[in-house]
Amino acid sequence: MDAFTPQQTIELVSRIGCKKSQMVWHKLCWNSFMAGPLLGFGCAVALSTETAPWYQDNAPSLIRTIGSVFFPVGLIMIVLSGADLFTSNVMFMLTAFLHRRVSFVHLMSNWAVSFLGNLAGMLFFMAIITGYGGIFDITAYRTEVINFATQKMLTPTWVQIFLRATGANWLVCFAVYISISSREIVSKIVAIWWPTFTFVALGHSMIPTALGNTLGGGIFVGGMYWYLYLTGPESEDIKFNVGDLDSAMEAGGPIGPSIRKSGPNTPNSQEEKDETFTKGKEPGRGHPNHVGSLPSSDQQMASGLGRELSAEAYTHRKGEPSLIEGRAV
To answer: The domain that contains 61 carries what CATH number?
Structure first.
């Protein structure tokens, strides 16, 4: 099967969370901002589809199902472009935190910046694209948007909104999780599509209710798979096929070092490289491009096509914890 195992996948989720904790704040802000409009496009298509009058009166379930088919486009664009979505960052950061790779301060700061960035991006989309662009100027479209917002915010109780947000982000984070297990684009798109389609068809709330989103995505996906696969003796030696891992896609780019330079402390044999990569050992801290390094987002990327994400050990930077053997010290 051309996919990562569940244990390998949650290990990659933890490493991605570790990478995200290193993003400089202004890049995280803009990357989070970009997720708002991308998700907005998917919402706009779904709402436009559900405005058909005859179907609303005679086949409301059918038109909801048809609209649900188009909504995942937004999440697919976010995952493939590498934008930071708060609801998926809940899973990434909490998994890395439970794995003791990021601090609580990094966890909360990432959540806060991505939440506010998503909100700003969605407000921009609503005001500029749909407002001045006149996408919902037609009466039927405007009525559907108002009814949709009323059903989400005013009709249900607080507990119902919380539970719907829990179910929604459970499925969203599971979609992102299984997309990471896929190794090529088509499989990622299919993996994202069905869980996202499911929560929209069921009518779960996608309002960013922080507590429900954290419970659904952080605990039921990130926390559960962390407990299953990254705790206990079986977590000590997670095997990867390093050659194939280089071609795997992280959110926005390939996972694994694209440049391997030889040096006095660089492992030479394939066995040493495999052990270095999977266990997060540091083969040569004096070498700026050693295999075990995880470059920070404010440095020049080694590849112009994606973000490098190697083993969890990386050099200590002033003001940030040093991660050695996958644990903060």
So the answer is: 1.20.1080.10
Torsion angle of C-alpha atoms 173, 175, 179, 181, degrees rounded to 10: 70
Range of the domain at 274: 257-329
Residue 284 in domain: yes
**Closest to 40 in 3D by CA, of 114, 125, 116, 124:** 125
H or E segment to which residue 253 belongs: strand 253-254
Q: Could you count the other beta carbons within 10 Å of the beta carbon of residue 62?
A: 11
Cβ(76)–Cβ(191) below 8 Å: no
Domain annotation covers residue 59 = yes
Assign 79 to helix, strand or coil: helix
279 and 229 part of one domain: no
pLDDT tens per residue, range 155-202: 777 788 788 888 888 988 999 999 998 888 888 888 888 788 876 766
CA distances (Å), 264 to each of 271, 274, 284, 286, 295, in order?
17, 18, 8, 10, 20
Other Cβ atoms within 10 Å of 119 Cβ, number: 15
Q: Is the pLDDT reported for residue 88 higher than 70?
A: yes
